[in-house]
Amino acid sequence: MDIRLNGKTALVTGANRGIGAHMAQALAAAGANVALHTRKPREDVNDQAQRLADDYGVDTTVLSGDLSEQRTIDEMFEAFDRHFGQIDILINNAGFENAHALEDMPFEDWQQLLDVNLSAPFLCSQHAARRMKKAGSGGVIINVQSIHDDVTRKGVAHYSVAKAGLKMLTRAAAVEWGEYGIRVVGLSPGAIQTDINREDNEALGIDNMNSWIPLGFIGETGDVSGVTVFLCSEQARYITGTTLYVDGGFMHNVMRYDMRPDHDLGV
Question: Which InterPro entries match (predicted)?
Answer without folding.
Answer: NAD(P)-bd_dom_sf, Sc_DH/Rdtase_CS, SDR_fam
